[in-house]
Design brief:
Layout (H helix, E strand, L loop, with lengths): L1 H16 L8 H11 L8 H14 L6 H10 L7 H14 L7 H10 L6 H14 L5 H14 L6
Keywords: Endoplasmic reticulum, Signal
Family: Belongs to the SWP1 family.
Membrane topology: Multi-pass membrane protein
């Protein structure tokens, strides 16, 4: 009986020692940070989003976050796509420099939520609306989502 208890306690001790926090060593985190550092050249909005999210998950501060916020806001010009609005609003939300809703962004989101839109377009539009505080017609989103899933029920690319 005593041996069984010791074996169970040993197994529990080993299993609790293998937590997700032990998967990335400090060296792994430093190497990952080096991979993400190329985004701070501020040339690609998608890279900036992924690097910002990566830094947040690593518990690191984004270097020169004010310059990053300026880059993100300046990347939004009239004619920006819903995807670029999604990227910019997501970075703004992560860094605490929210993107303001403009008439153009409201129009772009409204036009993206339509029957015939892909699931990815709908995701970008709804996330953008959530990030910048635009009210959307949920019934319209539901109809468009149902139509999109009838055409394509695969995992988002």
């Amino acid at each position: 009986m005593r041996k069984g208890l010791i074996v169970i306690l040993a197994i529990l001790g080993v299993s609790s020692a293998l937590s997700p926090s032990t998967y990335l060593t400090p060296i792994d985190k430093d190497r990952l940070k080096l991979v993400l550092d190329s985004a701070w050249s501020l040339s690609d909005l998608a890279q900036v989003l992924y690097a910002s999210a990566g830094y947040q998950h690593l518990g690191q501060n984004v270097p020169d976050s004010q310059a990053v916020c300026t880059f993100v806001k300046s990347s939004l010009v009239n004619g920006a796509t819903v995807e670029s609005l999604f990227l910019a609003s997501s970075v703004g939300k992560l860094l605490g420099c929210p993107i303001a809703a403009t008439p153009f962004s409201k129009q772009a989101v409204a036009e993206a939520i339509r029957e015939g839109a892909s699931p990815q377009e709908l995701f970008h539009a709804v996330t953008t609306a959530t990030n910048i505080g635009i009210d959307i017609d949920t019934a319209k989103v539901l109809r468009a989502t149902q139509m999109a899933l009838k055409k394509d029920d695969s995992v988002l690319r």
